[in-house]
Every structure is written in C-alpha cells, then in structure tokens.
Amino acid sequence: MHWEQVLRLENGKTEQLEMSGLAQIPQAVSCGEDGSFSGGDDGTPGPQRTKQAIAQLQQKILKLTEQIKIEQTARDSNVAEYLKLANNADKQQSAHIKQVSIVLESECLSF
What we know:
By secondary structure, the protein is α+β, with helices and mostly antiparallel strands. The chain has one domain. Helix content is about 55%, strand content about 15%. Helix 1 runs antiparallel to helix 2.
C-alpha cells in the first residue's frame, strides 16, 4: 500500500498532510533475523531511513490517538450533561432540548 496523504485532527479541524518522504518507502521491506529492516540495492532507502519513517508514523499515531481520546472525553461529557438536562426538564423544555439536539446532530454528521 502506498501512503501519500494522512489525515490529522487538530483543534477540531481535519487537515491533509502531504507525506512526500513516505512516498519513497518501498512497498515491500524485508526484515532481518536481528529485527532490522533492509532496503534492496535498487535505490530503496536503507534500514536507518526506514526505521526513522516508522518511528515518525508511530509518533503521529500516538498523537492522533491522544487527540481522539480528548475529543471522546469532551463528547462523553457533553452527552452526560445533555442527559442530565433532558432528565430534569419539563415537557416544554424537553421539546426544545430535542429540537436543539437534532440541529446539533445534523451539524456533527456534516463534519
């Protein structure tokens, strides 16, 4: 698989990152007995460059995972607050809350 673009979530916005350095990584990389990666003699990157690319990807994955956890925590907090308010609302307030939640839901789905 050839990766040229990666999506990143930052401050609630999705951005596309050009990964020009990764475009040079071979599609098939062999692994030696000692666990090192080796490129071929056909101009593919050497073991050190491959390890660096893998390390960079792992760091980006960790960063994205942390951002997702933060977003999920915020979402869970918002849902809990909504449920609490909806539970305590009278019928007129309940209808208004449902109407607002439908608008918010449609906005979230368009994101």
